[in-house]
Amino acid sequence: MNLFEAIVESSFDAIISRTADGTINSWNAGAERLYGYTTQEAIGRSIRLILPEHMSGEEREVLDALGNGSRLEQFETTRRRKTGELIDVSLTVSPLRDACGRMTGATSIDRDVTRRRKAQLQLQEAIAEAEQANRAKSEFMANISHELRTPMNAILGMTELSLNEELPDVVREYLQTVKDSADTMLILINDILDFSRLEADRFELDPAPFDIRRMLDETMRTLSLRAHEKGLELAASVHPDVPLRMVGDALRLRQMLTNLVGNAIKFTDSGEVVVTVEPVEYDAADESEWSVGDVVKLKFCVADTGIGISDADQQRIFAPFTQADASMTRTHAGTGLGLSICQELAKLQGGRIWVESEQGRGSRFCFTVSLEVAPASSTLERAVSLKVEELAGTRVLVVDDNDTTRGILKEMLESWSMIPTVAESAEVAIRELEAASENGEGFPLLLVDAVMPGTDGIELLERIERSTDSVGASILMLSPADQHLFRHRSARLSIGAFVEKPVSQSGLLNGIQEAVGDVAVVRTPEQTIEPAERRLSILVAEDIAANQKVVSAILRRRGHRVTIAHNGREAIDQHERSRFDAILMDVQMPILDGLQATKAIRELEAETTSNGTPQHIPVVAMTAHAMRGDREACMAAGMDAYIAKPLDAQLLLRTVEQLVQRTHPEDANMETLARRSGIWKLRKPAPPPPDSPETTAAETCDDQLWQPDVALKRMGEDTEILASMIEYFLQDVPELLQQLQKKVANGDATEATRLAHSLKGLCANFEARDTTKLARDIEARCYQGRLSDVGPLLPELSNLIRRLSEALTQWKTEQQHKHP
Question: What is the pLDDT of residue 354?
Answer without folding.
Answer: 92
